[in-house]
Amino acid sequence: EETPQTVLVTGGAGFIGANFILQARGAQWYNVVNLDKLTYASNLQNLTALENDSGYRFVRGDIGDPELVSHLLEQYQPDAVINFAAESHVDRSILNPLSFALTNVTGTLQLLETCRAYWQKLPLHKHERFRFLQVSTDEVYGSLGKTDLPFCENNPYEPNSPYAASKAGADHFVRAYYHTYGLPTLITNCSNNYGPRQFPEKLIPLTILNAMEGQLLPIYGDGQNIRDWLYVSDHCEALHLVLQQGKVGETYCIGGQNEQTNLMVVEKICTILDELLPSKPNFSHSSLITFVKDRPGHDRRYAIDCTKMNRELGWKPTESFDSGLLKTVQWYINHPQWVEQIRTGAYQSWIEQNYTDRTANYL
Ligand code: NAD
Ligand code: TDX
């Protein structure tokens, strides 16, 4: 298989996108153009290591801006687009569902439409190798009972949260663009990611930072909801394989083969912190655990069967949960400035000061 030379990555200033770009440039997979709107969840500090990398460009903008996106496609002639851009936090989707429809559904549709126009005009050799990869989630499949089989590629979509519904809507448009227009699309449905650079509203980084600061550790409901956790670099490796070797029009389920109750996850983090940052004698960070009101519509269990990824692309998760979690905790301990910039809002003000005029940054 031919490897694409240039990839347009959207949402690359967020958690998974930034890890993906760092990995892609580190391993010289391809040149990367990163289009990101820089919402609250973004962090350009994730990518400072690439400041002098001639194979990397950053552009601030919205996937739903056809003028900007077609300009970028013409300018950089990418062989693939990987769409990470999204509103990604379930709790926020419950408070403000409309913004999820706007970016995840309408934004993705607009991106597809702009890509279609570009792809249709490409010379044959580029036209044939072009790919649109949609980075999606296992949450579109709904919730599993204790004894249900894990989700796989043929499960029906049964989204339960506004976030999941918006990702499902996006995935359906991607599918429709393949069937209707022949746009060479790929979809991945991945389980919960964790690792360095995740915004501290998600369970794992929130727990790490709260525990470090001696604040309470909120656990929704009874703490027995189950998630399948995958270390982010394993996800990025899987995305690279799907992009290179995945069959056009198909879906790939990606998971960590690592089901954990939320309570177990939080306890493991506390145990790690007890060892790395012993404070008072006889104090355990787990004494900060506090059970709070449940998330409305809270899915009970997610699990992924990644047989297809293994059989067809030879992929499997490599990082163990204990080692991945230890590395994650160490990363947050070693990046107090990253944490402080986010916690104090300093990063958000910096964006506003530095990126007032969109056009000035891309033309
Ligand atoms: P994130 O919230 O950390 O990052 C999202 C990024 O997208 C941010 O940098 C944000 O500025 C950018 N963005 C938002 N709206 C945009 C727009 N309209 N135009 C351009 N950029 C925009 O999210 P993440 O956790 O890195 O997730 C990335 C993708 O992977 C999402 O599509 C998410 O649905 C999917 N996913 C996430 C997980 C997970 O566990 N985090 C699991 C499976 C799938
Ligand atoms: O404070 C908390 N307490 C708590 O018990 C938070 C923030 C979460 N939880 C629970 C809710 C979930 O059962 O922990 C679990 C994980 O919660 P999140 O980190 O919010 O992730 P989740 O809702 O599972 O969704 C994530 O995985 C799939 C990502 O945010 C999505 O973008 C991805 O698609």
UniProtKB/TrEMBL annotation:
CDD domains: dTDP_GD_SDR_e
GO molecular function list: dTDP-glucose 4,6-dehydratase activity
Biological processes annotated in GO: nucleotide-sugar metabolic process
Cofactor(s) annotated in UniProt: NAD(+)
Pfam families, per database record: GDP_Man_Dehyd
Enzyme class: lyase
Superkingdom, taxonomy of origin: Bacteria
UniProt keyword annotation of NAD present: yes
Catalytic activity: dTDP-alpha-D-glucose = dTDP-4-dehydro-6-deoxy-alpha-D-glucose + H2O
InterPro entries to which the protein is assigned, alphabetical: dTDP_Gluc_deHydtase, NAD(P)-bd_dom, NAD(P)-bd_dom_sf
Enzyme Commission (EC) number: 4.2.1.46
Residue intervals of the NAD(P)-binding domain: 8-325
Keyword NAD in annotation: yes
Keywords, ordered alphabetically: Lyase, NAD
UniProt signal peptide: none
Family the UniProt entry places it in: Belongs to the NAD(P)-dependent epimerase/dehydratase family. dTDP-glucose dehydratase subfamily.
NCBIfam families: dTDP_gluc_dehyt
UniProt name for this protein: dTDP-glucose 4,6-dehydratase
